[in-house]
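job 3f2a | input accepted
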Amino acid sequence: MIMKKESIPLVKAAFKKQFVQAMLNNGLSPDTYLEKVGLPTHDQDDPESLIPVKPFYHLINQVAVDAGIADFGAQVALITPWHKVKSLGPLISHSSSLGDLLATFCGIAPGQSSHVSFSIQEDDAGIWFSYTGTALIPNDIQMELYRITSMIQFVQLASGSGWHPQDIQLSMPRTKSVLACDLIRKSRITFSQVRSAIVIPRILLKLPVHLNVVDTIQRNNHYDMNADFVDTLRNIISIYISNKNCKIDLIAKAVDIPVRSLQRRLKRHGVSFNDLLNQAKFELAKNRLENSSLPIMEIAFQIGYADAAHFTRAFHRWAGMSPNQFRKRLL
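job 3f2a | predicted structure (331 res):
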């Protein structure tokens, strides 16, 4: 998938729970690592919301190195398989066969993460389930282990947990990390390939799959994976507002753009970081005032104000009325 020049690679917030759970299972502090790579530490209420994906690449490799977990990427996938991710599971839940499941997944995957591209290809060896997405960081070892493990688990939904692919192609160079993955090392592996792929016998595509998925997806969500640069950044800021220190250096780290470069890009679009921050705060404040009975003080705290007075003055500048007047008008 070719992305626009200034696009920020995004992923559904639901995937964050996979990584958090894997860290907890290994006795690690998720918040420590989330802060290191620039991911929000608070829970995202809506699994359909969008957050930057590149920090996940740094996260998965950082944990593997710091904690000495050679197969951490594979563990993330094994602990929470793709079909149990809240933003993805409902979309594939009606697949009747493995072939149907893989075709459906390949079609919807770019809507789950903006930089990915999965496909099904056929040759004399069989059916190849392939990933050819954009490489976001060099030496992408742990994220590739995560993807390949997840792909194998999809096939096992039809073939059973004892199945493993006869052949695997990996884009990573030869590494000992693969030997730590029971699900992968049983296969014949070729490294430094142009794609990541597993071969599937044709006969398996006709096998039924049974997915027990609770349909919790918010089908009318307003998040746009292909929004322009400014709108995307504004949406990202709205996610990070609940962090204690939502400043430009935090957002720059999250989107992996140097602060000065980010400021120049925003200037070319005729806005500043503070413009977007205030717009995001205003939208969040209106949402809380319209859709909750939270006290004004609590709303002020949620969007980064230490007291209600500062929030009230800011809201009056945005709306021409106080938060209480805004809420009373709605009533």
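job 3f2a | The chain has a mean pLDDT of 90.
job 3f2a | closed
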